[in-house]
Protein 1
Amino acid sequence: MKRIFLVLILSSLFYTGFAQEIQRFNPDTIKTITLDSTVNIKAEKLNIETFINKVINDTSFYQSFRDMKRYSFIAENRIYSYDKKNKVDGKIYRKIKHNNSGPYKMEYLVKQDTGKIYKKNGKYQLYTVEMFDYIFMNAYNTDFVPNAPAADGKGGTNESYKDKLKTLIFNPGRPVKVPFIGSKTEIFTANMRQYYDYAFTSGTYLDSIPVYRFKVSVKPDLSSWTKDGVMIKELVTIFDKRNFNILGRYVDMKYSNMLFDFDVQMNIEMGYFGDDKLPTKITYQGNWDYPFKKEERASFLIVHKDYKIEKGK
């Protein structure tokens, strides 16, 4: 149950943006957005509700991950684990060729591990690393392959949890019944809006794409007690001005109670390949602490490149 709960919470973080990160080694140094110095948003007849509705009702972000099945591509995955002093004590590097030219094949081009990565039984030391391997590297993820059988709960998750994962990842702001969190993910409800500021600005993404940056952040004048009770500290969504496609999401989350503590930031970015929008970069920084387990500290940099669409896909 703890493992499933960790999957659910981790997966709620798959949003993108540009804010403060945990102060330690950060593998991500790519700058992707530049904000305009002068912006005339009013002339474009937009308001906060426009962006909220787009975030809640968008389906294209999820579809971008599904569209990967029609492409062959290279994935480079760097994972770092840390000790209590934030010094790196484990490293994982994978360069993987995902081949969809026929029956799906995954080929390891480079596979390097150093430090305290695995248990004696061959499983990862940290649940965080194991879950990200499941989600991003597809080591056990049958859902990556079209028409693959659903996981049966043994070594995977059942359909109920998959549905919750999809909601948490791709539909931020919607209610999700995650244990001990309750309605804290519903940041667009009337009750939760009193705790947040909502704003949007104009900018340029990847040096050429005109975008809006929609930012939801905790109000700075809240009491410390109230701030501590708000789980999502910041949510940023990047919209393509030309078609309102979502090109990126960022989330900053922090919460503590008697059962667990976490402090995490995650970023996902998309790029255009022909007529499709596909994931290009995922970054993560996070600390987890829950009963009877060693505190987990990790960061990730996952880059997808060399997309090639395959015939008949």
Protein 2
Amino acid sequence: MITIFLPIITVFAIIFGASNTGSSDTKDFTPKTDQEKVAFEVYQFVLKNGGTKEFASAWLGNMEHESGLIPSRIQSDLPFQDAIAFNPTLGGYAMGLAQWDSGRRVNLLNFAKTQKKDWKDISVQMDFAWNHDSSDSALLKKFSKGTNINQITIDILVHWERAGTKFDPMQQAQRKTSANNWYNRLSKGSQGGGSANVGGGKIDVLETKMGQQVYNGECYGLTSFYVDSFNTGIHLGAGSPNGISGNIGETISASLIGSSYAWESNGWTVIHNPSYSDIKAGDIINWAQGGGAPSIYGHTGIITSVQGNNKYTTYEQNASQGRICAKYDRTWGMEFPNTTSIIRKK
């Protein structure tokens, strides 16, 4: 969430470069979902205004966690109320892709009025951020020349967004993962639909647990930890300090995770009995008994990358490498012939 105060910044750990600027080339990326269409427009805006692909992706990674890349979103999905929206002293009512709040929110609304346009228009929000957001516009343009995607992501979060969670390591890891995901999807020729690797085949919050027992050491425990890393009302237990919440069914069988919780009403999407073409990096994947899942309870993991030709990689726990978080190369329908569901954060 963006707040109104502006801290003094003395050092920016950004690597600057002139490459990858001024071009709107996105190779074979074809936006399909509403989120991808928004991302594509933001990405093209940045490149046309001299920013790097790395910066565009880092900005999108932050926006995804601020607003879900929904330009009309108001914090907590509240309705629009003039008395609150135009009061610069009131916070907690952030708006737009970057969730501008307080005085910056009012400045956005007033700018839209002067342009005789809707504040929800992506073009209005981009123009405001780039040219009319006081000293923050200059700061954004400075960041826009950077080529170190992870550093830019954190710099935007800490110095431009100035979110309350800006120093939370898990929040930083999630945003870097999202930024790298968008970079792969938009600049490396992925076909849209989220088919690219997350962070080049890595999910930061799970990379930190590689080789370690997570929660209770069961496969369910690793998926529970992954779900806990999101801002959600769903918690799967299995050793989680958050316990179990959002459940509407039994909470033991990994094969039933897709139907045992109120996912859809808590910001997630579930696809039951999916095909290989449905899966994306970052998805939770659940299998019924069979093959590498000998137990009647099934097995669960998180997809790390989707490589084509029915190949994909996962993070799993309590599989052949033991009761630790580890990576596995998988072939669709081979090791686990019965995929019951995939679950994806909206």
Protein 3
Amino acid sequence: MTATDAEPTGARARQTYYWRVRNARTRHRPESSAHRWHIQPGHPGGAYSDLGHELEPPAHHAPTLLSRSRPKPRGHEQQFRGGCLTCAWEGPVYPGSGHGDGDNSAIEDAHDHAFPGWRELPPITRARDRRQTQRNLTRWTQLTSQYPLGWVDQGAPILVWSRHRREPHLPPHRGSPRYELRVDRPPTHRDKRATDQDSLF
């Protein structure tokens, strides 16, 4: 690979290079484009994100998800890592099948980079309330009043209690221009009593 054809780093640069490979503008075969790191479709900055792809990067760190497919002796392995639309930061690589496996960890890394301390944000405790809360000005104000200054305008995530194990995080969309991150429901008193009883036997 020549110096002018080296795969770059950073989410936006990688996405541009991915399309160069896919459009046969490099020495690599277009069908190998899936093996290059690129923004996962549907995520901010991705080819199929309905938020679009701005020409100028955001003025603040903005999380997104990178993915690629790696050939293996039997089939392919999907890999994920967090990315930022503003700087060249990239997170560690996670193998997985997606849908909460591998991609969730990468998305969380990206939020650690863009919104350190996001795990302390107040969660929405019922999944059916996540859209109602954003549409109801009073409820939305109550929720986001506990966010650090400026985070809401920068697209800080909404936290929602998970309904089941490894429920996938949701990327931004027109109805909600921020990630919806699933977080574990805290144990109830009933769970604690059951655990205490189990320890006796």
